[in-house]
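[Meeting: bench + compute handoff]

Bench side (C.D.) handed over the final construct sequence. Compute side (W.E.) agreed to return the predicted structure before the next meeting so the bench team could plan truncations. Sequence as handed over:
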Amino acid sequence: MPLQSVRLAKVLDGDTITLDDGRHVRLIGVNTPERAHYGRREEAGAGDATRFAQRFLGQGPLRIGIGQDPQDHYKRTLAHVFRADGRSLEEALLDAGLALQIVFPPNLSLAACFHAAEERARKARRGLWSEAALRVSGLREGEQGFRLLQGRVTRVARARSSWWIELEGRVSLRVDRSEWKHFPAGMPESLRDQTLEARGWLVWRSAKARNKDSFPPWTLRVRHPLAIAVRPSA
């Protein structure tokens, strides 16, 4: 991965920084709790993640590795961020339990490394891992945003362009055809009746939209098998 030497201007939150050349950088492979904005309350752990990133990066020079997909839909630069000593900010956040891994193809070069760091934090119950995944039965009407969810798979269906995996009739996980190549053969069908953990951005569907079809109230797009995992039943 080619690296660029840069200088930090400001840490905006745990997973977003600005550089002195004006670029906004969104870290690849991690998501930290949201700070208060647009009238929304700050999520638990947001301040801890921000302060950790500030201490970890300090005032020294940095190096960044731009992703194969170089920008997100907000036009932020997608990059891995390293200190001058080579230590990864993303890995450090995951290891401290202050972030959760996210996987967006094609930016996969450090996905296995990040998964291992998250597993260390999970086993030690550090940070965010002191709490269990949210049961889909506990979702409140209209709830949206990044969530780590757990529920039993009650339906698996294949459409022309997507796989749909339903959790207890409340959440539909969508795997688009463009991402099928990342999943082992037979994986969606093998998930039937399993207790599944899934992570990603939860989208609430209006009553009007739901009246047009038979899908559950929420959808969540899954882009890589690292975003889901079979877990023991509660």
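W.E. noted at the follow-up: The radius of gyration is 18 Å. C.D. will use this when planning the next construct.
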